[in-house]
Amino acid sequence: MPVPASGAGELPFFVYGTLRPGQDNHDRFLRGRTAGEEPARLPGAVLHEGPGYPFLAGGAGEVRGELVWAAPGEYGALLSVLDRLERFTAPGHPLNLYERRAREVRRARDGSAVRAWVYLAAPAVRLGAAIAGGDWLNRPGAPEPPLP
User: Fold this and answer.
1) Which CATH number is 13-134 given?
2) How far apart are CA 95 and CA 124, in angstroms?
3) In whole angstroms, how far apart are CA 93 and each of 96, 97, 122?
4) Res 142 pLDDT > 70
5) pLDDT of the residue at 42
6) For position 52, what pLDDT does the model report?
7) Are 145 and 72 contacting, i.e. CB atoms less than 8 angstroms apart?
8) Residue 5 burial by CB count (10 A; 0-12/13-18/19+): exposed, middle or buried?
9) pLDDT tens-place string over residues 93-104
10) Contact at 8 Å (CB) between 117 and 11?
11) pTM over 0.90
12) Domain range summary for the chain, segments of one domain joined by +
């Protein structure tokens, strides 16, 4: 899939939990706002259990997810809605649940690097157990995907 065009400074988003295709928050917050999505991975990270959603933190692992590009004209609205969903107010804000950071993400198809926004657990967050394999959709106890 070709990379959708974006405006100056408009990074794609790396989603790794409930915003992934087939998950509830994908349908609620991303449907109709994206120009493209493709499988990707984030090296140097570990996925952790949270209260119904995951947390991502730095570490010696790899997390699987998707790169998501905003549809034309949707970038500002998408950035705003995702910041609210992830309870990100401003860098280092004491009430943040997540911190939004630009990171190098690797495309699954060819390993090429793409700079993307990633929501990482804020420092005050208490992390749950690490999810083996770094894949929210394939974690132990994950619900079976719906039949087509």
Assistant:
1) 3.10.490.10
2) 9
3) 6, 9, 9
4) no
5) 97
6) 86
7) no
8) exposed
9) 999 999 999 999
10) yes
11) no
12) 13-134
